[in-house]
Amino acid sequence: MTTFTARRKARIDELAGGRSLTSEAFRRLRRDPVAITGAVVVGLFVVVAALAPLLAPHGAAETFVELKRDLRPGTIPGPMEGFPLGSDQLGRDFLSRMLLASQQTLLVGVLATVIGLAVGVVIGTIAGAFGGWVDTLLMRLTDVLLAVPHLLLAISVAALAANPSQTTVIIAVAIVGVPIFARLLRGSMLAQRESDHVVAVTALGVRRSAVVLRHMLPNAIGPVIVQATLTLATAILDAAALSFLGLGDADPGRAEWGLMLAQAQAYLDVRPALAFFPAVAIIVVALGFTLLGESLREALDPKGSR
Amino acid sequence: MTTHPLLKVRDLRVVFRRRGEPDTVAVDGVSFDVAAGQVIGLVGESGCGKSVTSMAVMRLLPARGVEISGSIELDGVELLALSDSEMRERRGRDVSMIFQDPLSSLNPVIPIGLQITEVLRRHRGMGKAQARAEAVELLDRVGIPEPRRRLDTYPHQLSGGMRQRALIAIALACRPRLLIADEPTTALDVTIQAQILGLLSDLVRETGTALVMITHDLGIVAGMCETVNVLYGGRIVERAQRHRLFGTPRHPYTHGLLRSIPRLDSPPGEKLAAISGSMADNLPWAHSCAFAPRCPRVLETCLDITPDAETSGGRLLRCHNPVPASAE
Ligand SMILES: Nc1ncnc2c1ncn2[C@@H]1O[C@H](COP(=O)(O)OP(=O)(O)OP(=O)(O)O)[C@@H](O)[C@H]1O
Ligand SMILES: [Mg+2]
Fold it and tell me: How many Cα neighbours within 13 Å face the side chain of A39?
């Protein structure tokens, strides 16, 4: 009898333990091979980026006599003792540069996305929560930004800067994200405004700020977070493109995949690996974020549950 | 009734105006009173304006595209004249509402405990710990087992009946003077329905809250409402004390509604009388009776003249040719 009571109690505890929709989404994610693939790629990328200074055998700007010795027009030394990926066009260790570049890429991608997300969320919340002319004005502005192809927009913004730097790349890429986040959030905020539970909580006389911030925003933000993962992929591509076009930091010693790809152009026939590795790195990382984002979107979609 | 009513609705008219579409008159001159501690029923089929009436009282209808006229007085204060922020102060504390769908009416991302304490802290100025203790008590009151543990559960983890109880607990947390329950049990199965209704009437009796029960189910009204208002096409067609209404329904619509409920004492094999037609093909009240196309007792006059509401012996009736009081 005591075991029965104890078991019953354990079962009640188990059933009563609060589990949010988000934690259930996570449970689903853990069983999704696409999500796992994306997470592994992204995880590896983040670990490599974080540990890059430790992993890289050499500095990004360091040149080596061993490499420079064989460096002449028409030949760039390939893999050799101590330099697994060989030299780049200036006699620097290519492997170290690849590794160190991951850090720059992650930094630019994350910063640009986070800044774009923050600004977009503020705009989307204001537009969706208040509606009326505020909404109309803000949405017209985002429409204008959305009408421009995103790379063109990033290029135009970056080109406005007097002297291109990493900061201007981040800002340019962030601005590309703002209207996407704002529109998306505004749409789901509007849907929330009409939703039963928001009407119900309004009927309870809950303060307007609490209705917006506690009852509407958390329910509306899901798709925006998913979008952020996807935007991270395009942000990395856009940032690489800006560097490639010479709109990024001009410091030749700096390692950055887009910049490396741009500089490798001149040596495509001499040593295609110089272009191949940065290109593949950019694609794999962007793909990783896309896979993760797409499966997040599916896991969080209430219609997909069960 | 000599005591003055808590809620006094007079000539309430709600018109939806949309560009490019004809206006919809959802509520067309509805008047009723509710006193403290009283339970009244608002009954009628789908689309007759029950929800629009309650949303108008709560002032929850959108400001644009909706025209509201008439008067809604709560304890002598005209709600329709209040500013948005004044109305916000009253919602929850003075008037509160329970909605039809218990799942979608709860915030899915917040544990129910927090949804109760939020209201307690807002309307009763409680601190965090005090509000939590009170929330446990409220959940216990509405019959949720293990209330302390339930505080941290999310709405989707509760059964339909439990969710509806949680919603009632939230509505009661504000101690409203008037509670509007818009079909609070339609989403639930019959046994749970009975429990919830019992709970509601107990709570109303204990706290002296005025309750407006909105339903299309006469069975619910029969059990708990003192006065029953029968709504058709946005107008009240009959109102009486529940015993009189059920004993001698006078309006052909009410009569039909009652006859379409299966009765235990009806002889086996007797066909149920369904009211023919539906609201969709009604005539507007202008120059005729809206129920005329479906009415079994329709006269020539019904198609020419709108029947006025007439009150006699405590019964309001809007009909040219009512069912004789001796019938049935
Ligand atoms: N936002 C709106 N815009 C236009 N017409 C509306 C709107 N809301 C309600 N109506 C109309 O008002 C009328 C009454 O609707 P209401 O929701 O009050 O019906 P109800 O009696 O609550 O029905 P149910 O039992 O189905 O809930 C309906 O004819 C409906 O078409
Ligand atoms: Mg309704």
Answer: 11
Structure tokens at A196: 């039963």
Question: CA A211, CA A17: separation in Å to the nearest integer?
Answer: 26
Out of B90, B107, B146, name the one closest to residue A201 (CB): B107
Token pair belonging to A163: 């002297």
Radius of gyration of chain A (CA): 24
B47 pocket-lining for ligand 1 (C-beta < 6 Å): yes
pLDDT per residue as tens digits for the range B94-143:
999 998 888 789 998 899 999 999 999 998 999 999 999 999 999 998 88
Atom of ligand 1 lying closest to residue B61 CA: 1
Q: Which ligand is nearest to the CA of B53?
A: 1
Q: Is B125 left (phi over 0), alpha (psi -120 to 50) or beta?
A: left
For residue A165, the CA-to-ligand 1 centroid distance in Å is 59
Alpha-carbon torsion (B182, B185, B188, B189), positive or negative: negative
Which residue, chain included where needed, has tokens 């069912």? B323
Ligand 1 atom at shortest distance from the alpha carbon of B52: 18
Alpha-carbon gap, residue B39 to B224, rounded angstroms: 7
B157 contacts in A (CB within 8 Å)?
A: 15, 18-19
CA distance B187 to chain A (A): 14
Q: Classify burial at B85, counting beta carbons within 10 Å of its beta carbon; exposed 0-12, middle 13-18, buried 19 or more.
A: exposed
Residue A62 backbone dihedrals phi, psi, to 5 degrees: -65, 135
Kindly state if the Cβ of B100 falls inside 6 Å of ligand 1: no
**pLDDT per residue rounded down to tens, chain A (306 residues):** 556 666 666 555 555 555 676 777 778 888 889 999 999 999 999 999 999 889 888 888 888 887 777 777 777 777 877 788 888 888 888 999 999 999 988 999 999 999 999 999 999 999 998 888 999 999 999 999 999 988 888 888 888 887 888 889 999 999 999 999 999 999 999 999 889 999 999 999 998 899 999 999 998 988 898 889 889 888 988 888 888 888 887 777 778 888 888 888 888 888 888 899 999 999 999 999 999 888 888 877 655 443
Angle, in degrees to the nearest 10, between helices A222-244 and A94-130: 140
**Ligand 1 pocket, B282 CB below 6 A?**
no
Tokens of A278: 């940065």
Distance from CA of B177 to the nearest CA of A (A): 13
Instruction: List the one residue out of A171, A163, A148 whose CA is nearest residue A247.
Output: A163
B45 CA → ligand 2 middle, Å: 9
A196 to chain B, closest Cα gap in Å: 5
Map tokens 């067309």 to a residue: B28
CA gap B293, B298 in Å, rounded: 8
Quick one: CA dihedral B214, B215, B220, B221, positive or negative? Answer: positive
Residue B88, φ and ψ in degrees, nearest 5: -60, -35
Of A21, A204, A208, the CB nearest to B109: A21
Query: Which of A133, A201, A215 to mutate to probe the B interface, most B CBs <10 Å?
Result: A201
Beta carbon pairs, A and B, within 8 Å: 91
Q: Which ligand is closest in space to the CA of residue B233?
A: 1
